[in-house]
Structures are given as C-alpha cells and as structure tokens.
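Slide 14.
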Amino acid sequence: MSIQELIKQQVQENNIVLYMKGTPQFPQCGFSSKAVSILKACGVDGFAAVNVLENPEIRQGIKEFSNWPTIPQLYIKGEFIGGSDIMTEMYENGELQELLATK
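Slide 15: predicted structure.
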C-alpha cells in the first residue's frame, strides 16, 4: 500500500482525523497543541491522531494529499478542513462546533 493509499484509508475510516506533531497527550508543537485544545473545547473526546514525527513518509505524504504545506491538518468525514489557523477561525465563529455536532 502506498503512503497516499494509507492516508486515504485513515481519512475514510475515521470520522475525525488530526495529523499532528506528537500525540494528543503530548503535542510536540504549539500549533498541534492548539488544534487538540480546540477539538476538546468542541467536546470531541475521541478522534484519530496520527503523529507525523513517527513516519517521515506520512509527514510528507499528507502535505501532498491535501495540497497544504503545514501540519497539523484536520479531516472530518473524509473532508480536509485545514490547519490550526483555520480551526481557530472556524471555532471562533461557531462553524467548527456545528460541523462536529453532526459527526
């Protein structure tokens, strides 16, 4: 299975996937930490987290998959949402809570 196929499978098999640096319990960058905090603030308890620091192929592959240059990256029901900046904006205007409420 190619990295692109693996990423596609992860995104399709999980309602919420966060590609991040580190883990939800121990984020390895401020942006990943903020993304986890936003999901928790929205009441999301369980989500799939992929630590890109553990696999350089996924770290590069996810950037190509989404055509987005930075990590973290959030996917909800197979749809790319964005990074921590977009998550912050969506959280502040209530869009993210609405989107997550339907999951």
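Speaker note: The mean pLDDT is 95.
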